Amino acid sequence: MSIMDSADSVLIESTLNGDEEAFAELVRRYQSAVWAVVHRTLGNSRDNEDAVQEVFLRAFTALNNFDLKYPFGPWIMRIATNYCIDQLRRKKGRKTQLWSELREHDQERLLADLSNDSNFESGIAEGTADYVKVAQALLEGLNPKYRVAFILREVDEKPYEDVARCLGTSEVAARVRVSRARAELQRKFRAYLSGIKGRSEK
Question: Is the pTM for the entire model greater than 0.85?
Fold first, then answer.
């Protein structure tokens, strides 16, 4: 179990004693990590800055209940993840740019994984744009808790221990969510590819 960073501990205690600058320092320490979770999960949105502020507001409000025996980082990441899941549930129709913002190498890696076809990657260049649109649409259609788990593990490539901390669940549960997300995406993506192949053979 990780030990609380001593500097974080001092900053939290100072915040609880009314030192606003102490909390501002906590924000500076973790802002980039929170931003990354928000951006990866919700996509490129004008609302991201507001989302980050809301995450830290929730953390500030709940700080009285924080147990100093545990590290602050996973706690604030869990708040960020839960907030993103809430937003996804409320705005299911919102389009994001998650997939198109990935580096080309990462797009190819994920698409090849979804196709479950060793020959897919070698021929991916021809239809990358179409595949990305389909994969993005499938990802947006996932149950929010599975989508977030998949992004944390397969897009951000976090170890399962970190995924579990961000989700506030056990490592086994995190693995189950990622596995279910991957299975559903693979099934639907392969069905799409089969349809493309069938049409091309007619």
Answer: no
